[in-house]
Amino acid sequence: MPDAYRRRTVCAAATALVAAPAAIAPPSAWVVAVAAVVAMAAAILRRPLGPVSPVLAAGLVAGLSLVTDAVYPGEQGLVLPWLPFEFASLLVLAGRVIRRAGVRQAALVGSALTLALMALPLRFTLRLPQAVLAPSMVAVAMAMFPAACAVGVGLYLRAQDDHRAHAVRQARQEQRLEVGRDLHDFVAHELTGILLEVQAAQVSAYDEQQTTELLTRLEAAGLRALDSMDHTLQTLRDPEAATPAEPPPTQVHGLADLPELVDRFLASGTTSGALELEPDLAGTAPREIEDAVYRVVLEALTNVRRHAPSAGRLEVEVVRVPGPALRVTVTDSGRQGGPGGLTARRPGGGGTGLAGLAERIGALGGDLSASPHDRGWRVRGVLPLRPDRTGRV
Questions:
Q1: Distance of CA 7 to the CA centre of its chain
Q2: Cβ-contact 111, 59 below 8 angstroms
């Protein structure tokens, strides 16, 4: 059964039951019966007045209740059959408005509903034949406690909703940042290699075999870029999947992937170099640490391609150091034969990769530095082997 239909059915049954005593009561009883029925309908239905917003409908209910308190012409005894139902409905409306309405609307309409709650018992006590001051004060005091509970529950649930919404926004922001980092780390790396290959082909005469090899490398790099993009964009297909307790999935690499990465880099250019990786080190560090080491090397190689593609020598070193920690160092010999690379054609491009990588490594309790070294550049990262969730070792 649809929720809207079920609500209408419950509302019709409840209001018919509450209004039934008015059929045998004096005509003046219809004033309080109508107020109770309208309050119940507003508490049960999502939009009791059609196009009128639920918050405005709740405000109208509060106004109707206060007006009924003032103009009711009948005996005080006729109030009692409907007073509990109207009181309960006003409690529900007060809590709902304070929880879900905007700040200004919650303050105005919530105050009106709270006033209606505390004034509702006066509909009975002010019409007593004897002195009314003491009973009225007691009745208002007794009504104040459930009214305060409704306000407190509404504020508590509102705070919980705000906290949940903030957590979702933060998770989505982390997801977007993670997607951006993955796109930069993996897709930009391959695209940079493709562009440099194309630039080299524009200034060099390739024979048929070299052209075939070039196209094969470009095809392989393009396929890797597409695979990386497909994997990364999978995290955007279900935006509700990202929560603070379950971060979005990312591409994870390890130390065992470094030889293939470095060999592919060296094979695509004229730079010579070597990877120094301690034997049996791969697979011994936590997964996130090995992935961070891989990303340091990847970012350093991407920057060499962009800023110093003519570097003559490249050294990559991954060793265990006291701490215990892993130290990864990527050193290049700098440009050979003048400026080149993508920087010359894209002034101002890039500049965010190392900053984002430093944030990632800092979150793991490590440290990243990048500085000139001899005629070239050196990137060095140190990552603890046993980081806790706060990034401390």
A1: 32
A2: no
Q: What is the dihedral of CA 371, 372, 377, 383, to 10 degrees?
A: -20
**Which structure tokens are listed for 288?**
């996130």
Phi, psi for 372 (deg, rounded to 5): -60, 150
Q: Which residues of 274-296 are buried (b: 16+ CB within 10 A; e: fewer)?
A: ebebeeebbeebeeebbbbbbbb
Half-sphere exposure of 352 (CA within 13 A, CB side): 11
Tokens, residue 217: 């490398």
pTM of the complete model: 0.58
**pLDDT tens-digit series, residues 304-332:** 877 777 777 888 999 888 878 899 999 98
Paired sense of beta strands 272-277 and 313-321, if any: parallel
Helix (H, G, I), strand (E, B) or coil at 379: strand
Residue tagged 């609307």 (tokens): 105
Return the structure tokens found at 186. Answer: 């993996």
Angle among Cα 226, 227, 230 to the nearest 5 degrees reads 85
Q: What is the DSSP string of 314-349?
A: EEEEEEEETTTEEEEEEEE---SSS--SSTTTSTT-
Q: Is the peptide bond before 248 cis (omega within 30 degrees of 0)?
A: no
Residues facing residue 332 across a β-bridge: 314, 377
